[in-house]
Amino acid sequence: MPEPDLTTRIETLLEAMTLEEKIGQLTLVSAGWAVTGPQVSGDYMAALRAGRIGAISNLWGAEQTREVQRVAVEETRLGVPLMFAFDVIHGHRTIFPIPLAEAAAFDPGLWERTARAAATEAAADGLTLAFAPMLDVARDPRWGRIAESPGEDPWLAARFAEAKVRGFQGQGIAEADSVAATAKHLAGYGASIAGRDYASVEVSERTFHEVYLPPFRAAVDAGVAAIMPAFHDLAGVPMTANQTVLRGLVREGWRFDGVMVSDHGAVAELIAHGVAEDDAEAAALALRAGVDIDLMGGAYGRGLPVALERDHVTSAEIDAAVRRVLTLKARLGLLDDPYRRCDAAPAPARAEAHREVARDAGRRSIVLLTNRDGVLPLRDGMRIAVIGPLADARDDMLGPWAAAGRAENMVTILDGLREALPGSEIVHAPGVEIAGGDADGIAAALDLARSAEIVVLCLGEARRMSGEAASRARPDLPGRQPELAQAVLGLGKPVVALLSSGRPLVAPWLFERAHAVLATWFLGSEAGHAVGDVLSGRWNPTGRLPVSWPVELGQVPIFYAQRPTGRPPDPAVHYSSKYLDLPVEPLFPFGHGLSYTRFELGGLRTSAGELRPGGSIAIECDVVNQGPVAGEETLLLFVRDPIASVARPLLELKGMTKITLEPRQQGTVRFTLPADDLTFLGPDLMPRLEPGIVELYVGRTANKDTALKTSIRLLAS
Ligand code: BGC
């Protein structure tokens, strides 16, 4: 709630507003694109002057936003400043790894740093509202938006949520270098049927609460300023009109008093969803559900006056939404100084510092999936053939949703390797295009590969093959890349394959045949340097998979937190929960990721054998670096409640921690597990803590067989 004098200012403004001006505050329109950059069209400028627009997206730049803000402040009747919004998903000008990649760092400090850097750049460009973080748990690599997501696990996604909100909003959203964050897309969007974007979602109420909502709850608890409901319908009720969730749960239950902004055109799309007959009905449904701002649909502008006449909404409901928008503007400091983010001259020093953050984020996001015979790290001084269409793909390094990032500022993998291995002779041929194209270049690529001691194969997707509306029914290597890769692998040379992609790619043959495979995702501005650091051994890889990597598409959706079955999978038992033609396990489990050194774990112990409600327990284990080089190890704490009133998942993540050790050095890691974290939803979907044995596992991956195990007893009181 704003301070008393602000409340008075807001109320005074509200009283002075016509209905049209009020609806204007609830209307967000998108700028277009001109040769010179983003630009607001003449039609929108006229609407702005008439007080019919309250916020603009996709317009950035201190000068551009200042000029449009000037019109809002000086040329509208009430002079209410605008908010400027943008999809700052993984960086603004400096581009960081895509969220799925960054999640692989298992590092809240890093997640916060990249969001902080992005916020300062966005704010210096006049922006006030980031349409981020994207918090959709995703378990299906067909869905293109898995690239924007923190992966398959609700606990990890909740930590990601908090870190990102802290990073974007900094010391407070009034600060000139902070922006308001938007937790999106509430909720369950990642479960769209068969991984097809915008499709219906069918999840049980339990899974909705246990898997899809926790990151949003964490964002709200961290003080997120805004929430964006998702496009989809949840079992027939579009999220944009979902009163039970938006109003009942989020506003009333979680006490979220910020702004809800619809997804692009989602209010008007309620008609296509089949729940509203016209704009007026759509507008009434969304407003009454709790959506304050209509992003680009125009349904509020056209529909709310009619809905008011029909008594489908009340003036009080419109006022409440306007009040929330004005409060956000006040909290952003815009009522005191509308131009506070439009005059920061971008400091060149900051750009360099942000590139350092991007390089660190990049190398921490890379996951070393396989490394046979220690082929990596590469020795300098070799003849290396860098083959494949992603080696010199500057634009693709941006990944989906690249905000104001520019291809010319990206470091390609080829450039990065040349810098990292100056004594090596590096030759390059793309061989084929990323998608489509012909196989004519394969012969020349093979010639180069033949002349080299080792081949680095740069494969993957184009940047627009993941992200929004980029679902793939066959999430594998596109185009003629399999042909190229098979031909190169056929030469019998050591091959290191790098996969630049927005999702786990299905290519089991590649993992069998290549000496090493790395997930290099889309790493952003410093992609090449990050890859160079890892391949040269300057950085000992630390990245770990935030999603299970399937062997084949038939295993999808695939995630570690499965529930037990009465007939556990057993290849030797016919009537068991298995496939006849594939293992049930993923190719690589959640948490998988190799290092150039080897860590051994032992001595798992707890501070007590029993835990009382309200209490907490410390869990420790020893780690020794048994390998040849220093390294950083990430350890994960999983729990399992073997007997409960509702079958609990086979494993649930509850903690993560890191330790850095020199060769032969030993250290101890420690987790704290509060009893509250063992709360789950009972048969009535009410939270409860059930006494009994709780198994604890500490390990590198979501694999019980390789983790250390102990158990404690949770007491009733
Ligand atoms: C996307 C959102 C995004 C919005 C505004 C929509 O199509 O689903 O994630 O924030 O556009 O650009």
Number of strands: 28
Q: Major sheet, described briefly?
A: 8 strands, parallel
- Summarize the amount of helix as a percent range: 25-40%
Count of all domains = 3
Spans of at least 5 consecutive residues whose pLDDT stays below 50 are none
Shape: globular
Strand order of the largest sheet: 11-8-7-6-5-4-1-12
How is the quaternary structure best described?
A: single chain
Main structural class: alpha/beta
Q: Give the N-terminus to C-terminus distance in angstroms.
A: 37 Å
CATH class of the largest domain reads Alpha Beta
CATH superfamily of the largest domain: Glycoside hydrolase, family 3, N-terminal domain
- The CATH architecture term of the largest domain is Alpha-Beta Barrel
CATH topology (fold) name of the largest domain: TIM Barrel
Number of helices: 20
The unique ligands bound to this protein are:
beta-D-glucopyranose
Give the overall average pLDDT: 97
Report Rg.
Answer: 26 Å
Strand content: 15-25%
Give the topology, please.
Layout: H1 4-16, H2 19-25, E1 27-30, E2 32-34, E3 37-39, H3 42-49, E4 55-57, H4 62-75, E5 83-86, H5 99-103, H6 108-124, E6 129-130, H7 154-169, E7 180-186, H8 205-212, H9 214-221, E8 226-229, E9 233-234, E10 237-238, H10 243-253, E11 259-260, H11 269-273, H12 279-289, E12 294-295, H13 299-309, H14 315-331, H15 348-365, E13 367-371, E14 383-387, H16 413-420, E15 425-429, H17 442-450, E16 454-460, H18 481-489, E17 495-500, H19 508-513, E18 516-519, H20 527-536, E19 599-606, E20 610-611, E21 616-625, E22 631-640, E23 652-661, E24 666-674, E25 680-681, E26 687-688, E27 692-699, E28 708-714
Parallel strand pairs: 1-4, 1-12, 4-5, 5-6, 6-7, 7-8, 8-11, 14-15, 14-16, 16-17, 17-18, 20-28
Antiparallel strand pairs: 2-3, 9-10, 13-18, 19-21, 21-24, 22-23, 22-27, 25-26, 27-28
Residues 57, 87, 131, 184, 263-264, 468 line the site of beta-D-glucopyranose.
